[in-house]
Amino acid sequence: MEILGYLFSILIGVSLGLIGGGGSILTVPVLVYIFSVDAVTATGYSLFIVGVTSAVGTATFFKNKLVNIKTAIIFGIPSIVAVFLTRAYIVPAIPKEILTIGDFVVTKSILMMLLFAILMIAASYSMIKKDKKKSNEAEGPQKFNYPLILIEGFVVGVLTGLVGAGGGFLIIPALVVLSKLPMKEAVGTSLVIIAAKSLIGFFGEASEVQLDWSLLLSVSAFAVIGIFIGSYLSKKIDGAKLKPAFGWFVLVMGIYIIIKETMFK
Fold it and tell me: Does the global pTM surpass 0.85?
């Protein structure tokens, strides 16, 4: 199981490097179902793993001048604030038992996994659907829809804080549509935003749980190996062609989590 967990950790990085997102959506299920980490703790661990992996992944994009710093700051600030507030106040405020339906008790851990499964299904849709507009690769001066960028940044931050996923599948379309960035620049800028908000969210959280640094660092190391593999493969393979297949995989995983958390408890 441990070997399987590390293989999936590599896949997390490969996905981030190859298609610019999606990989972080696997982090929590890998931690919960393979490494037996509590769901709430896993969302915190995921912030660190996703943050470190994304930070390493930004190096290539900075080198190729595919990071828009201004956009990263405008989108990133509300997102970082939202992650910090969510981890500091909202997550600790959720009671251990939410509600009881007959003999079934919805606990905080089950709620986290169900939220995560819903996010996975939403992410899978954005990966599976075909992009009709490829000509939208911004030409001309960049324009900002400030109100929508701020709102979207805050919403993505809350989701990241709750479930520990980077939210690249939400950030990248927002940067293309709202900030008029070319796709490759949107991917690089997205990784910078994900790295910043994930790591600030992780280190800003006052956790009462003893952190398993051995597990955290080993999973992060394999994910970092994966992002180098993904970045290399992106030069050989069109990530857009692999995206729908990965989307179907994420969809199946999301449905599996809902079934496991509701029918086998």
Answer: no
